[in-house]
Amino acid sequence: DGGITQSPKYLFRKEGQNVTLSCEQNLNHDAMYWYRQDPGQGLRLIYYSQIVNDFQKGDIAEGYSVSREKKESFPLTVTSAQKNPTAFYLCASMGSSYEQYFGPGTRLTVT
Amino acid sequence: AQSVTQLGSHVSVSEGALVLLRCNYSSSVPPYLFWYVQYPNQGLQLLLKYTSAATLVKGINGFEAEFKKSETSFHLTKPSAHMSDAAEYFCAVTRAGNNRKLIWGLGTSLAVNP
Question: Is the pLDDT of residue A43 over 90?
């Protein structure tokens, strides 16, 4: 089945540690996205990539980093510089009619 | 610039009643419009999309939405609510180009009462 996988589902880290969230897709889509979701704030765009080896900052990129070395993969690193990293993180890719397909999400808790 | 407004952050209906979730957009060019559903602790699932074809769009789970250019609206409806429809619903807009970014509404939480 084609789709987007994110791992792990739940992630716990101590404050001050960097953590990398995985996102893989087998939909053959060029564009991929990372969103952060907090209660009552909808989806906020962190980073997006329209093609391999290229990515752009979204609205809340500070404290995050990404790479896009392969078409299928778009990992997100939450660095220790992110002031409030506890959130639900969603990865998505974009289809031919601008619709986005989402993974199941990773809930990150930093204490 | 494009924007999306979802009227009502919380909507409550009785099982079997009509579901109406409101979405208004602003766009200077023909938009692409989407409705998504999110169940707790899950990713978003595409319900339906408008891409300049028929103005009445049918989606999954019995939902449909009508694109009304004069009202800049794309409201989501379902004739008869089921308990399983309780979820968060998001409206989104984009246009051709636009750096392939979607503009998202803040979401509407739908509760279905027995």
Answer: yes
